[in-house]
Amino acid sequence: MISSLRGQVQHVGLDHAVVEVGGVGFAVQMTPTTLATLRRGEEASLATTLIVREDSLTLFGFADAEARELFSLLQTVSGIGPRIALATLAVLEPDKLRHALAEGNITVLTQVPGIGKKGAERLIIELRDKVGALPTPSTPAHSQTRDHVVEALLGLGFPAKAAETTVDNVLGENPDQSTSAVLRRALATLGRK
Fold first, then answer.
1. What is the pTM of this model?
2. Beta strand pairing status for 4-12 and 56-62?
3. Where residue 141 falls among pLDDT bands split at 50, 70, 90?
């Protein structure tokens, strides 16, 4: 996967830019807000994600890793593909999107082209609890430890609910533990079930 690009901007279009890296020009799809920060001939640094389809490889670029994570998270919802996920981030800034999902604000979510009332309800149901789990620049170390351990447990095949509950219980006993200590305790607890 191509997770970031740094290079000279060769072209800025309405929905994409071409960034040259090592003599290769990468066409990168972006929101208008991100495109507005780019200037032809200047260097750009982007967080990216590559979407592979049968008939295409499409690179999407973001101003920061938080927007990239939200883009990926949006696509976990049935009926939301990369185009609608990008449109969502074009209409709603990451913080506004998080708040709309957390508060269940259907009106804000339906401002996005391609998302109707049912789609907004599905987004809220499926992502309400997950948007709080994404790290933000102001997230305390305790929350980042929780996020890292839960992610590791999910990677090992444990169910999301069991992983989150177990990590919360372990951190509830002692919130100042290191990530590795929390992971060991969580694995020991889950291994007994």
1. 0.64
2. unpaired
3. low
